Amino acid sequence: MPKDITPEPAGLSNEQVANYNRDGYVSGISVFSSEQVAHIRSSIEALEQDHPEGANGHDLNQYFRVNGHVVIPDLSDLARTPAILNAVEDVLGPNLLVWSVELFIKEAHSEKTVSWHQDITYWGMGETNDEVTAWVALSDVSIKAGCMRFIPGSHTNGIVPHTDTFSEANLLSRGQQIGGIEESDARHGPLHPGEMSLHHGRCFHASGPNRSDDRRIGLAIRYVTPEVRDGLAGRDYAMLVRGVDLAQGWTHIARPRALFHPKDLALYDAILDDQSSTLAKGAENTTGLYTPKESQS
């Protein structure tokens, strides 16, 4: 992953913060140079070539799609990128933890789509404002490539009803979707390689098929604050990346010891067990909730 981190930018401008607060998302934030993006992509594709079978009974796509930062050091390190953290801090404040790091790869000419949804619907975090997804483009994420679409201002709603379809054409874990969306209200969020968007966990968003000639590669990092766990039952895990956690509601995890280290693999399965029960809550069909199909965003 990037060996030479660019000087830390100041973070978001006042206008970008205002746009995020008003719309529930902001895009076009530059965090990596073209050289860094090329290095990151090369590292990811080397993993695909060298470790397609994954480890410990899970294939590589499982780790790419679910909690990859627990067993892949490069993904853990990317979540600590200063340029990303500075922007996220302007939204969430100085104390930041990483709940999940995921790679979303849509192959060229893939017709898979993602329905309109809110991220935090099934995450067991309630209706918090203290979660944000940083979505970083590691390839050209154009409209043709199936970039995300957002409904501005939709984050001001609570969590709205979703219908579970478990459709094979839908890349969400439950095929969940929000009905009644007016496509004319949507705004596209295309990204050049090295740019990122930030979106609120309640912001309605979707993505279309990748009809381009290249893979659509995105890195999604889910940041939370210590206070997200206040008053919540059960146990969940996060990695402290900036500031302090005085609330102590999260079970803290560290950077992986090495790629697919046995102790980290055991931790991964323990986290999966705890999170699966939350994700499956209320579902009529639990098949494949933590079996990656290709991408979700």
Write the topology of this structure.
Blueprint: H1 14-23, E1 25-30, H2 34-50, H3 60-65, H4 73-78, H5 82-92, E2 96-106, E3 114-117, E4 131-137, E5 148-150, E6 187-188, E7 195-200, E8 205-207, E9 216-224, E10 237-242, E11 251-252, H6 262-279
Parallel strand pairs: 10-11
Antiparallel strand pairs: 1-7, 2-9, 2-10, 3-8, 4-7, 4-9, 5-6, 5-8
Order of H and E elements:
HEHHHHEEEEEEEEEEH
Question: What is the H level of CATH, i.e. the homologous superfamily?
Answer: q2cbj1_9rhob like domain
Give the uncertain stretches in residue-range form. 282-289
Q: Kindly report the CATH topology.
A: Jelly Rolls
Largest beta sheet, briefly? Answer: 7 strands, mixed
Supply the CATH class: Mainly Beta
Helix content percent band: 10-25%
Q: Any idea what the radius of gyration is?
A: 18 Å
CATH architecture type: Sandwich
Descriptive account of the structure:
This protein has 297 residues and is of the alpha+beta class. It has a single domain (14-279), classed as q2cbj1_9rhob like domain (Jelly Rolls), CATH 2.60.120. Helix content is 23%, strand content 20%. The chain is built from 6 helices and 11 strands. It has helices at residues 14-23, 34-50, 60-65, 73-78, 82-92, 262-279; strands at 25-30, 96-106, 114-117, 131-137, 148-150, 187-188, 195-200, 205-207, 216-224, 237-242, 251-252. The strands form 2 sheets. A 7-stranded mixed sheet has the order 1-7-4-9-2-10-11. It is globular and about 50 Å long. Mean pLDDT is 89; it is low at 282-289.
Précis, in short:
With 297 residues, the protein is α+β, with helices and mostly antiparallel strands. The protein is built from 6 helices and 11 strands.
